[in-house]
Amino acid sequence: RGTTVSGELVRSVNRGLTLVKPGGELEVWPVDSIDIVRISPDRKRVAYIEGGRFTGTISVREVATGRVLTTPPLDEPMSLAWLGPTTLVYASSTLVAPKLFRIEVGTTLRTPEQFFDEPTGWFSDLGVGGNNLFVVSMTPTFTAARATGVRMSPPPPRPDDEPRPTADGWEVVEPARDPILPRFTTAQGRDE
């Protein structure tokens, strides 16, 4: 899954995690049924979603100490991304009103704060690039996926932009109107 400050993190056969330390020592992390694992940008923490399809928890493990912080059960956590060494975002994917949340990580996990939603559909993958959070948003018709960028801080205004403001000064930018976000082709071959 990637490199941490204490070694390489790999997925075990049982869908658990194992840290391979320098010199080959193995440290097995007792986790249950995980699919999504993200290493913080400073490589000191690992976040993962644990649980079933419709409910789950997010756990954050400090690599050096082994200390684990875990959220209470969450509704449909689907994807994770680190915005920085102490800020996680996750997508809650429901057919009605999917949402994006932010969690500050310190000595505790702060209460998740919602900062974006859509009226219908669901969110899939999240990614961070530069000063942007990228979200794959899918519609209930299954005809196409749409990439949406959520800027982490407002850029200077451009005359052709029509941003949708969100909490804390973020804005939603549609790929077709923004030269920073790439255009892509849908499954039907139409340029979006």
Your description of this structure?
This protein is mainly β and 192 residues long. Helix content is 0%, strand content 49%. It contains no helices and 18 strands. The strands form 4 sheets. Strands 5, 6, 7, 8 and 9 form a 5-stranded antiparallel sheet that branches. Strands 14-15-16-18-17 form a 5-stranded antiparallel sheet, with no helix packed on it. The chain is globular and about 50 Å long. Residues 153-169 and 174-192 have low confidence and may be disordered.
Keywords:
single chain, 192 residues, mainly beta, 5-stranded antiparallel sheet, 18 strands
> What is the total tally of β strands?
18
Order of helices and strands: EEEEEEEEEEEEEEEEEE
Number of continuous helical runs: 0
Helix content bin: under 10%
Q: Quote the distance from N terminus to C terminus.
A: 31 Å
Alpha-carbon Rg, integer: 18 Å
Structural class of the helices, strands and pairings?
Answer: mainly beta
Q: Uncertain segments of ≥5 residues (pLDDT<50)? A: 153-169, 174-192
- Main sheet specs: 5 strands, antiparallel
* Oligomer type: single chain
Strand content: over 45%
Net shape: globular
Mean pLDDT comes to 76
Short description:
The chain has 192 residues and is mainly β.
What is the strand and helix layout of this fold?
Layout: E1 2-4, E2 7-11, E3 17-20, E4 26-29, E5 34-39, E6 45-51, E7 55-62, E8 68-70, E9 74-75, E10 77-84, E11 87-92, E12 99-104, E13 113-117, E14 122-129, E15 132-138, E16 145-151, E17 164-165, E18 171-173
Antiparallel strand pairs: 1-2, 2-3, 3-4, 5-6, 6-7, 7-8, 7-9, 10-11, 11-12, 12-13, 14-15, 15-16, 16-18, 17-18
